[in-house]
Specification:
The complex is a heterodimer of chains A (577) and B (176). Chain A contains 23 helices and 20 strands. In chain A, strands 3-2-4-5-7-6 form a 6-stranded parallel β-sheet, with helices on both faces. A 6-stranded parallel β-sheet of chain A has the order 11-10-9-12-13-14, with helices on both faces. Classes of the chains: A alpha/beta (577), B alpha+beta (176). Chains A and B meet through strand 6 of A and helix 1 and helix 2 of B.
């Protein structure tokens, strides 16, 4: 069969060609540099899928086993590549199944464009077969959305969609296209969008604020940095490193900021937040200047706001004006792109080291090591811990793997103990806390960074929420490594039940299937480890495999994740046991 | 605890389908009731102005305005207290025509409230009144004993007492 594709010259910006709306969608994707889309076909998006078939030599479509999987895969792809992820689905249930991934992308600022098919324009509002108001449904969880009812709208709307998704503080955009608009022919011409008059992607940097911030930093005796994902999204890793090193300030990270500065950097003092490190949490309430870089003071980071860093002057470097003073009062708001702000402030910073202050972090680390880390990473008890599995992955991957974690105890353990040399290596569902995220996100991550080792770390609960994506792995042969840390419990909920609900384990114990047989059913090599002496060999075998690999590790049933800041408590009320 | 006050939020936006849903969702998400909502053309072509009245704290209002301004199609959003704005509502009262002649006091009420009769038919006549909410409510109370067939009141419209930066921003828009 002839594969009909337009010559490159014809799809160049500014050249008119008469094509259908469906074909126009493909040209828009190609013009935006998209190579891979994730999705699931259905009645209302069939014209676009028909065009995908024609263009299959230029645009790779990955058939996930559920639309939710398509969004998470697109997220994984976007998070490791820094490009826009694309997911598509049909109308009605196809579209509603995208919503979880869209909400996840919205709260974690992931650039994503979702395309949904919709019933024909004349049927809108008639409760037609598989009609749902996906624009209305997705409004609260998208950066922008739009329904296209005429083919001629496609180029401008698609161009806007990609610009909005990737610019400023990134986010998900949904474009809903009625079936008639997919069939209609029109004169197609594509212009990339570079500005929207009512939208300011990034605020202009105020030099006065930069100078004010620099003065406070230079005078500080006990300064501390907390950086977030804004550093990664703003490609500000080098600027962060230069700033941290010149100012000599201990720097901690939120879970989405992990990997922006190498784990072994001497000024990297660990993770803040509910299950973060002891030092950075305790010392948040001792520092005199708190420098927040591209982070949004999430409640999991701050704990009780009435006691959070009250003694400190807060400098908030942020691209999104709505985040300033949202949760924590900023004494000096530094609005703008964090990379540009850091580059602007660097010449004003005096070289410094805060050794005595930094030593306090080291002292706290020692306490945490003795009470928590030692037992997690080098346990003396018989049962395997999640921490030692992560530590083994660190060793076998040489700190170079992309770790995609799901949600729960294993996620906190992975974020605490995974070591990273390279940015964009910690892919997890931070804000929404979406169980089922990791397996499809790992598929996307591997496709977004094919040369990197991608290891999905998943609990037995979250794994079963999107376990069907093993089918996608089997079909695409994407060589992801899957590690299920099985404690036969919804571990994090069980931990809370133990600590706060009098050990009433309501509906958290799981009777699990034979995961090995399931993996093998999808023709994925699989192994189960129950003893410590088998762990090293199994992880080595997994990492050496050129193909997808499933490793189940039976871990301690009732292990808890510490340190822990109970909900609503102060960051300095952090518990070590 | 910060006290609740009445704030008028003004939103200047592109005139696009679906934006009202997006903006109202911001209030819904925070469980804040909209006391009054008016959307109309602004002084610039294709730019709409929302006038939204809420009764809440200034902190919440400021955060809401931040979230509104974040919407792609919103050009600018502001909030003002009652003291900072000139504001009005409009109301229509529909009353049986015979009362106009049988109850002479009604004519006095119309005159005293600086309202006007907009139409008269054999069955009913309609009075319009513009002013602050209390003035309209006072007139309502005065007319109530005579029987009001229908009553409707608009959302608040307002302009700021001070010059607003939006004028210059919108001027630039006009030339784009």
């Amino acid at each position: 069969m002839e594969v009909k594709t337009l010559k490159k010259e014809e799809s160049k910006t500014g050249t008119k060609i008469r094509i259908s709306g469906a074909e126009a969608v493909i040209h828009c994707l190609l013009a935006e540099g998209i190579e891979t889309v994730y999705g699931y076909p259905g009645g209302a998006i069939m014209p676009i899928y028909d065009e995908l078939y024609k263009f299959r030599d230029r645009l790779h479509h990955v058939l996930t086993r559920h639309e939710q999987g398509a969004t998470h895969a697109a997220q994984g792809y976007a998070r490791v590549s820094g490009k826009v992820g694309v997911a598509m689905a049909t109308s009605g249930p196809g579209a509603t199944n995208l919503v979880t991934g869209i909400a996840d992308a919205q709260i974690d600022s992931t650039p994503m464009v979702c395309i949904t098919g919709q019933v024909a324009r004349h049927l809108l509002g008639s409760d037609a077969f598989q009609e749902t108001d996906i624009v209305g449904i997705s409004t609260p969880v998208t950066k922008w959305n739009y329904q296209i009812t005429n083919a001629s709208e496609i180029p401008e709307v698609m161009a806007k969609a990609f610009y909005i998704a990737r610019s400023g503080r990134p986010g998900p955009v949904l474009i809903d296209i009625t079936k008639n608009a997919q069939f209609e022919e029109f004169d197609f011409e594509y212009q990339k969008c570079t500005a929207i008059r009512s939208y300011t992607a990034k605020p202009t940097i105020n030099q006065d604020k930069i100078e004010e911030a620099a003065e406070l930093i230079n005078k500080a005796k006990k300064p501390m940095i907390v950086w977030g994902q804004g550093i990664i999204l703003g490609k500000a890793e080098a600027a962060l490193k230069a700033f941290v090193e010149k100012a000599g300030i201990p720097a901690a990270w939120t879970i989405l900021g992990a990997s922006a500065l190498p784990s072994t950097h001497p000024l990297n003092v660990g993770m803040v937040g509910m299950h973060g490190n002891y030092g950075p949490n305790m010392l948040t309430n001792e520092c005199d200047v708190l420098i927040a870089l591209g982070m949004r003071f999430d409640d999991r980071v701050t704990g009780d706001l009435s006691t959070y860093a009250k003694q400190a002057k807060v400098l908030h470097f942020e691209i999104d004006p709505a985040e300033i003073n949202k949760n924590v009062h900023a004494d000096v708001p530094v609005l703008g792109d964090v990379k540009e702000s850091l580059e602007a402030i660097l010449p004003l910073i005096t070289e410094n080291n805060h050794d005595a202050w930094h030593n306090k972090f080291k002292e706290h680390y020692k306490i945490e090591f003795d009470k928590v880390i030692k037992n997690d990473l080098h346990p003396e008890k018989e049962g395997l811990t999640m921490g030692e599995v992560i530590e083994r992955i660190n060793k076998e991957s040489n700190h170079e793997a992309v770790i995609v974690s799901d949600v729960g105890q294993h996620q906190m353990i992975a974020c605490r103990y995974a070591k990273f040399n390279t940015s964009k290596s910690n892919i997890t569902s931070g804000g929404l806390g979406t169980m089922g995220f990791a397996l499809p996100a790992a598929i996307g991550a591997k496709m977004g960074a094919p040369k990197r080792e991608v290891v999905a770390v998943i609990g037995d609960g979250g794994y079963q929420m999107t376990i069907q994506e093993l089918g996608t792995i089997f079909q695409t042969k994407v060589p992801v490594k899957i590690v299920v840390l099985n404690n036969d419990f919804l571990g994090m909920v069980r931990q809370w039940q133990q600590l706060f609900f009098d050990r009433r384990y309501a509906s958290t114990e799981m009777t699990n299937p034979d995961f090995i047989k399931i993996a093998e059913g999808y023709h994925i090599q699989a192994k189960k480890v129950t003893k410590r002496e088998d762990l090293e060999g199994a992880v080595k075998e997994m990492m050496a495999s050129p193909n997808a690999y499933f490793l189940e590790v039976q871990v301690e049933k009732e292990d808890n994740v510490f340190p822990m800041i109970p909900t609503g408590a102060s960051v300095s009320d952090i518990r070590l046991s | 605890m910060e006290e609740n006050k009445t704030f008028t939020i003004s939103v200047y936006s592109e005139n696009n389908v679906g934006l009202l849903n997006r903006i109202s969702g911001i209030f819904l998400k925070r469980h804040i009731n909209i006391e009054s909502l008016n959307v109309s053309k602004s002084e610039i072509d294709h730019v709409s102005k929302f006038t939204i009245v809420v009764h809440t704290t200034e902190d919440w209002t400021r955060k809401i305005v931040g979230q509104i301004e974040k919407q792609i199609e919103v050009i600018k959003a502001y909030y003002h207290t009652n003291e900072e704005t000139i504001f009005q509502e409009s109301a229509l009262f529909k009353i049986a025509s015979n009362l106009l002649f049988d109850e002479r006091q009604i004519q006095n009420i119309i005159k005293d409230n600086h309202s006007e009769i907009v139409t008269v038919s054999p069955e009913f006549f309609v009075i319009s009144k513009s002013g602050r909410r209390e003035e309209i409510e006072e007139m309502y109370e005065q007319l109530k004993p005579y029987g009001i067939m229908q009553f409707v009141r608009s959302g608040r419209i307002s302009v700021s007492k001070s010059e607003m930066q939006i004028s210059n921003i919108l001027k630039e828009f006009q030339y784009q």
